[in-house]
Write a structure and sequence with these properties.
By secondary structure, the chain is of the alpha/beta class. The chain is built from nine helices and 18 strands. The chain has helices spanning 38-41, 85-88, 142-152, 170-180, 193-202, 230-237, 263-267, 280-288, 307-315, and strands at residues 3-7, 10-14, 26-36, 47-48, 52-60, 72-75, 78-79, 99-100, 120-123, 127-129, 163-166, 186-190, 205-208, 218-223, 238-248, 271-276, 301-302, 322-325. The structure holds zinc ion. Zinc ion (ZN) binds next to α2.
């Protein structure tokens, strides 16, 4: 079976992978489209890559609900055990043994293989039915949109004068669209000139990060950069008693002596909230409602054989995202 595998930081297309066998309560999924972003390019674990996908259920395994067969599904990338105290207490996204498909899990937890292969096994509990008709690629972004939705929830932007989204990657641009629908004064601070044209198209204000003022006057700053050091910038931008939201990558914000940089936020009595991931089911509803424009993320399409090259381009931040199509 074909699949895209990372070993020792080198990504290659392989055609000798073992056929996956669905376990108890699992199904076999044939991906139609797998979305890749910079996070996949920087993924550090070995194994099949890919965390964002839409596909068709080929076969139900033992004990799995057979009505899933032949349905188009989005697969929730975060695998929770469903049995620990957190899962039973409504905190499945913080499952003690939770693991992100194609990325990483906590120390000691066997990582879950990714979805960029001809087939992969997934538990029925991770399946979300996607619309059967139409072009599938857009649904692969459901989890990413869910993450942006999570970031935008719990932060009040209505009536606020200064709202900044830091970062012009996929999550930053989706978050900016969601927030801009609630407050026209949202602006994006980014580093990539071509993406400013997208903001222009959506009527969202934008500036280069290097040109950002340091007036500590922002009511809300949502940091979607995934860069630990960006928190220092967010903390310099925030006004007294403002709100900083940090969208953490699945593994959390790590590395760098950034803790010392939150000083301005502490003296400003600002609140700093972290959020991580978000439900693919919620994201799917936002896409279905047509509330966000994902066309820039669908612009680069390729076959599985070209996925390693697409990942290199993503690592160099040349493209926003790539969609790997089956066939
Ligand atoms: Zn659990």
């Amino acid at each position: 079976m074909k699949g895209v595998v990372r070993r020792d930081r080198v990504t290659t297309l392989r055609d000798d992978l073992p056929e996956p066998t669905p376990g108890e309560g699992e199904v076999l999924v044939r991906p139609e489209s797998v979305a890749l972003t910079g996070l996949d390019a920087g993924s550090w674990r070995d194994g099949v890559i890919g965390r964002l996908c839409v596909g068709v259920v080929e076969k139900a395994g033992p004990g799995a609900d057979r009505t899933w067969e032949r349905k188009r599904v989005v697969v929730e990338p975060l695998r929770a055990c469903g049995a620990c105290d957190r899962c039973r207490g409504g905190l499945a996204s913080h499952c003690v043994s939770g693991s992100w498909m194609g990325l990483a899990g906590p120390d000691g937890v066997v990582p879950v293989g990714g979805c960029l292969a001809e087939r992969f096994a997934a538990p029925c509990s991770a399946l979300i039915e996607a619309p059967a008709r139409g072009e599938p690629g857009v649904w692969a972004f459901a989890s990413l949109v869910g993450c942006a939705l999570n970031a935008s929830r719990g932060v009040r932007v209505e009536g606020k004068t200064y709202v900044t989204v830091l970062g012009d990657g996929p999550i930053g641009l989706i978050t900016a669209q969601i927030l801009a629908s609630r407050n026209a004064s949202v602006r994006v601070l980014g580093r990539h000139e071509p993406r400013f044209a997208l903001c222009e198209r959506w009527g969202i204000r934008h500036r280069h990060e290097a040109e950002a003022g340091r007036r500590a006057d922002q009511d809300v700053v949502v940091d979607c950069t995934g860069r630990p050091e960006a928190l220092a910038l967010a903390c310099r931008l925030i006004r007294p008693r403002g709100s900083v939201v940090v969208v953490a990558p699945p593994g959390g914000v790590g590395g760098g002596p950034w803790l010392s940089d939150v000083g301005p936020a502490s003296s400003a009595e600002a609140s700093v909230r972290y959020c991580r991931g978000g439900g693919a089911r919620d994201g799917l509803e936002v896409i279905r409602a047509g509330s966000v424009d994902l066309s820039p993320m669908l612009a680069r399409r390729c076959r599985m054989a070209d996925a390693p090259a697409a990942l290199e381009s993503l690592a160099r931040r040349e493209s926003l995202a790539a969609v790997v199509e089956s066939g």
